[in-house]
Design brief:
Number of helices: 2
Helix content: 25-40%
Number of strands: 0
Order of helices and strands: HH
Distance between the termini: 26 Å
Oligomer: single chain
Largest sheet: none
Length: about 60
C-alpha cells in the first residue's frame, strides 16, 4: 500500500465513509492531475485490459 502525491475521490470513499478503495490508472504518477498531464497510449491500452479483467473477475 502506498500514498499518491495528488488527490482522488478515494478521500471521500475511504476516508469519509469507510468504503475500501483502490486507486488504479494508466500513466506516471508525476503526470497525474497536472496542467500538462499526458499518458502513453500503450499505458491506456494496458489499463483497459486490467479494467476488463477486473470487471470479469468481480462480476463472474
Amino acid at each position: 500500500m502506498g500514498l499518491w502525491d495528488f488527490s482522488t475521490d478515494g478521500v471521500f470513499t475511504m476516508g469519509e465513509v469507510g468504503i475500501p478503495t483502490v486507486g488504479l490508472g494508466p500513466g506516471e504518477e508525476a503526470q497525474a492531475h497536472r496542467a500538462d498531464e499526458h499518458v502513453r497510449l500503450a499505458d491506456v491500452a494496458a489499463a483497459a485490459r486490467v479494467y476488463a479483467r477486473l470487471a470479469l473477475d468481480l462480476l463472474g
